[in-house]
Amino acid sequence: MAVETQVEMPMARAMTSRERRWRSWPQTPSLVFLVVLIVVLCVTTPGFATAANLRGVIEQVAVVAIVALAVNQVVLAGEIDVSTGSLVAICSFVYGNVALSQGGAWLPLCAALIAGGAIGAVNGVLSTYGRVPSIVATVGTQFILRGIVLLAGGAQVLNLAVDSRSFGAGAPLGIPTSIVVLAAIFLAMQWLSSHTTFGRDIYAVGGNSRAALATGLPIHRIRLLTFVLSGVSCGLAAAVLLGQIGQLQATAATGLELKVIAAIVLGGTRITGGRGSNVSPVIGAVLVGVILNALTLNRVSGAYELLVLGALILAAVSFEGVRQRLSGERN
Amino acid sequence: MSVTTSLRRLTWPSRDAVLAVLFIAEVAMIGILVPGYLSPYGLLDASRQFAEVGLIALGMTLIIVAGGIDLSVGSLLALVSVTIGFSFQAGLPLGAALFAGLAVGAAGGFFNGVMVTSLRLHPLVVTLATFALYRGIAFAVSKGAAVSSFPEWFGIFGQTSIGGLVPVQLICFALLALVLALLLARTPFGRRLYAIGNNELAARFSGVNTALTRIIAYTLTGCLVGLAGIIYTSRISSARGNAGYGLELTVIAMVVLGGTRITGGSGTVLGTVLGVLILSYLQDGLTYGGVRSDWALIVTGAFLIVAVLLNEIFRRVRR
Amino acid sequence: MSAPAELLPTAAADFALRGVGKSFAGVFACRGIDLNVRCGEVLAIAGENGAGKSTLMKCLHGYYLPSEGHIEIRGVPVSFRSPRDAEAAGIAMIPQEVDLFPELSVAENLFVGRKRPRARWGGFDVHAMQLRAREILASLKVELDVAQPVRCLAAAHCKLVEIARALNQDARLIIMDEPTAALTEREAENLFGVVAQLRARGLAVIYITHRLEEIFRISDRLVVLRDGALVAAGPTSDFDTSQLIAAMVGRPLEQLFVRNPHPPGETVLELRKLARRGQFTGIDLALRSGEVLGVAGLIGAGRTALAQALFGIAPADSGEILIGGRAVRIRSVADAVSLGIAYLPEERRSQGLVLPFSITQNISFAVLARFTRFGFVARRREACFAQEEARRFSIRGADVEAPVEVLSGGNQQKVLIAKVLALDPRIIVFDEPTRGVDVGAKTEIYAVIDALAREGKAILLISSEMNELFSMADRILVMCKGRVTGTFERDEFSAAAIGAAAAGVARSRA
């Protein structure tokens, strides 16, 4: 007699639980797209599948991916960070200057990590306790930091000594150092996300911040820590970048933030928070790297890079938006 | 009590007065610190630069009041400029090229509006994407080159003045500021913007077509960007793809400084104008005083953050 | 109506409220409530909408601080500053709306905010968490895949997860607020089984509902709230349906307002088999001009959904709507407005008014075109109109230029009514027009509705207050779970019959 008053998700009935979980992995579409793209490129573009080219792509991807893994956590918690480009620039400055005066690689790294973490903390405080929307706060710090870097560094280009380039140059056991670092960070993030209270709470805060607050989770502190994480990863990325390039420039990493956001969005993490995995930003970074590489190989001028990134982000979020609309206006 | 007063209630009671005082104090201080700054010609001439930014800030006010945001205005400016320059270079008569520029501006704004409303995407992400997309298109079209071969008369928009003193674009800005102030405060459209920014659900329940209203706001801003692009290109007599870099930051900072809450629902054009003046003369004073342009980045970023923080504090104190 | 039964002796009560009351801005939502519950017992709290049930439970759960009275646990007075304190003391609340974390798994939802079992090497022991989740669910005789994210679950299962969460927090008292509101009959049955399990395990359960058959099925004792006061209490076996309804609605057919009777006119609105998936189905309705058709029903019956379909906010999927005999399509608010339909939304603060706007601006908002000349709003004419409307509806408390957020609930509601009526509609749908409104304003609003009917408007009055419907309606339509379960003419009005129809109980039961 009673009307069936709720709509059950069709998935819950039709599939086994394992099927369902695979189907609902956020990174599935992008992974599929990536594989298809790589296959197409291998076939159509000579020069793509060469060791030298792939190595170059991988090195670029590594830097983006390291930052994207951390900013992914910020997005999962429901915020956003677009200051990463300038953050990497400042951290590379810190790294470079410490390396030039003290030598070595680990001391400069520590300095860069601390600098990154501190600035990340500022972003975090502004966005949480300061009630400044994170987009505004991080856009603001992005410009402030870039200004500082340009003022401090000017047009100078400094060269680093070889022993300061440990994090980006070289290839122990044949694997590029950048990849080793990336793998280490990935594992660390996986551990964070699945086995620490902090990592799980990030999903809770991003998924249902109201309930999280009611449950007593310290949502401000959690969000702040994600910004610190983002800053620290920028410090690390700076070390890797400097290792790769060997030179310090005030204009380093300009435009990185866009690649990072593109990587996160393309990988499948939901921009409103609460949904996504650690694999997503890595896949997204690879996708961005491969697409940009395809442009370069096809002699498309570098000017198109921005255009392509913008179009990609738009396409990715539109796709997600249409999907949500079709599946019934899920809020 | 008049309706305007009750609309003013939406912001801090004498905030505009505070801003006006701040502005005067600022100019005075710059005048003291930087000798030779306080000349009528110099002060008016500074408006050549802020008129462009100001026009865009007027549109941005409408968008933010309605609860949205637009990060792509700087890139759109570049695209407009490039459209003007390169279509002219390709043989189009300059008048038509200007028209094309305006059309591109409007189209860019319209696209933003449609993406934000039709798929219910967050304006942040959409305009971040178009920020890249529009500039990308500008770079692609210009291929890094610039067009400077404009005829003499093109300078009328950006380089001439009335009576040898008042720059044309300042008049343009003042007129449009007036028009938009009236639009926001005294027309049904303006009411609808405030309503949507405050309580979108109630607006929809009242029969307001919220999607259309938003699209109009974004498109109008796009048109203003188009106009600003014409003035800008005329002023520097050159069309290039890296115009307006960082412009969106400055514009948002000005709007927020003027008292518009970043989350929407309140704000006035008068406040924005004051914000434009304060920030512009600060930057102008710094430049005149020989401070490096990189400082401008730092100052603007800092102002943006401080302005939002202050807005929040004032809001708490009022309650 | 029996006097409130005696309270259990203090020593026997595990959880008690003594003289608890809560007021908002000087108006008491509930007052002087004494009730208690023992472990191993199910206490039902019955009452109509607005009786104060939810507010009372929010006090018990620490969401509100009581304005008077206190809470006792095992005879010891306690004070909660937040729901966390209440949960630490063993009181858990299952709210009406599902409040879980959709992306986390079932097992994880049980552990958010709590210490998770650790594995030897430092991370979580995911298996231990899942094991515990399965254990708890098994104790409720429920089997679920605990590794799947909650967003894949049906609403009924989400409820179970919330109960499991409460159990994982070592709750000794579980408060359930209308748990079957979104469940099918079969799912509700399962839930009753779970409640029985909880009782058997020695937990105390407070079950808020206004579904009568549920009260009789699962509760040991019950209390009835009406207008914020406790009006009946005792073992469930002491009550029967009619007594319960009588307690819930007060003296039946109590006239809050005397209307001037007049014959209705032509049929203005007709609905034939109107349906919207998941909300309502098979709605047949005829409304005449000058008539007030009351729409009764419980939460979740689909009344608001029907109103919103009529108003174009959430259009119907199938069926016909005829206005003045002509079939029409209503796909948007603009359509509805052009057809002369107006809707007074249920939530005035979040759906109806723009709080920072002035009274004038709110009233004129839907009809700004009328005051617009050469594109500008003529402020003085607008203000004059607002003054007139304020006088007409007795809106008191502020100048018409004051923002509506400073007004009392009753005055805010009048502003909303003025706004809706400014369109001069033919058909008006009032959705809970006197909710949260003081008695004086209520009477004034009734006078307005009566005057509108006399003018020949056709009125749909959605209300959860039986007295209101009895006083104001010419006919009453009852909905339950999306269907029409009864229509009553004025001479057929009976609280028992209407209550039964609203609860979906078969008509033959008196």
Description:
The complex is a heterotrimer of chains A (331), B (319) and C (510). By secondary structure, chain A is mostly helical. Chain A has a domain at 58-253: ABC transporter involved in vitamin B12 uptake, BtuC, CATH 1.10.3470.10. Chain A is 71% helix and 1% strand. Chain A is built from 14 helices and two strands, in the order H-H-H-H-H-H-H-E-H-H-H-H-E-H-H-H. Chain A has helices at residues 10-14, 17-23, 28-44, 51-76, 84-102, 106-127, 134-153, 177-195, 197-207, 209-215, 219-245, 256-267, 279-297, 304-326, and strands at residues 158-159, 247-248. Chain A is globular and about 55 Å long. The two termini of chain A are 30 Å apart. With 319 residues, chain B is an all-alpha fold. Chain B has a single domain (16-25, 37-318), classed as ABC transporter involved in vitamin B12 uptake, BtuC, CATH 1.10.3470. Chain B has 13 helices and two strands; from the N terminus they run H-H-H-H-H-H-E-E-H-H-H-H-H-H-H. Chain B starts with a helix and ends with a helix. The model of chain B has no long low-confidence stretch (mean pLDDT 86). Chain C contains 17 helices and 22 strands. Chain C is α/β, with parallel strands linked by helices and 510 residues long. Chain C folds into three domains: 10-249, Rossmann fold; 252-340 and 425-510, Rossmann fold (3-Layer(aba) Sandwich); 353-424, no CATH class. In chain C, the strands form five sheets. Chain C has a six-stranded mixed sheet, with helices on both faces. Chain C starts with 14 loop residues before the first strand and ends in a 7-residue tail after the last helix. Chains in contact: A-B, A-C, B-C.
Give the key terms.
heterotrimer, A: 331 residues, mainly alpha, ABC transporter involved in vitamin B12 uptake, BtuC, two-stranded antiparallel ribbon, 14 helices, 2 strands, 1% strand, globular, disordered N terminus, C: 510 residues, alpha/beta, Rossmann fold, six-stranded mixed beta sheet, 17 helices, 22 strands
Write a short abstract of this structure:
With 331 residues, chain A is mainly α.
What's the helix and strand layout?
The complex is a heterotrimer of chains A (331), B (319) and C (510).
Chain A: H1 10-14, H2 17-23, H3 28-44, H4 51-76, H5 84-102, H6 106-127, H7 134-153, E1 158-159, H8 177-195, H9 197-207, H10 209-215, H11 219-245, E2 247-248, H12 256-267, H13 279-297, H14 304-326
Antiparallel strand pairs in A: 1-2
Helix pairs in contact in A: 3-13, 4-8, 4-9, 4-11, 4-12, 4-13, 5-6, 5-7, 5-11, 6-7, 6-11, 8-9, 9-10, 9-11, 12-13, 12-14
Chain B: H1 3-8, H2 15-33, H3 40-65, H4 73-89, H5 94-118, H6 123-142, E1 161-162, E2 166-167, H7 168-186, H8 188-198, H9 200-205, H10 210-236, H11 247-257, H12 269-288, H13 293-318
Antiparallel strand pairs in B: 1-2
Helix pairs in contact in B: 2-12, 3-7, 3-8, 3-10, 3-11, 3-12, 4-5, 4-6, 4-10, 5-6, 5-10, 7-8, 8-10, 11-12, 11-13, 12-13
Chain C: E1 15-24, E2 27-37, E3 42-46, H1 53-60, E4 68-73, E5 76-78, H2 83-88, E6 91-94, H3 106-111, H4 126-139, H5 155-168, E7 173-177, H6 185-200, E8 204-209, H7 212-218, E9 221-226, E10 229-235, H8 241-249, E11 267-276, E12 280-288, E13 292-297, H9 303-310, E14 318-323, E15 326-328, H10 333-338, E16 341-344, H11 348-352, H12 359-364, E17 372-373, E18 376-377, H13 379-392, H14 409-421, E19 427-431, H15 439-454, E20 458-462, H16 466-472, E21 475-480, E22 483-489, H17 495-503
Parallel strand pairs in C: 3-8, 3-9, 6-7, 7-8, 13-20, 13-21, 16-19, 19-20
Antiparallel strand pairs in C: 1-2, 1-4, 4-5, 9-10, 11-12, 11-14, 14-15, 17-18, 21-22
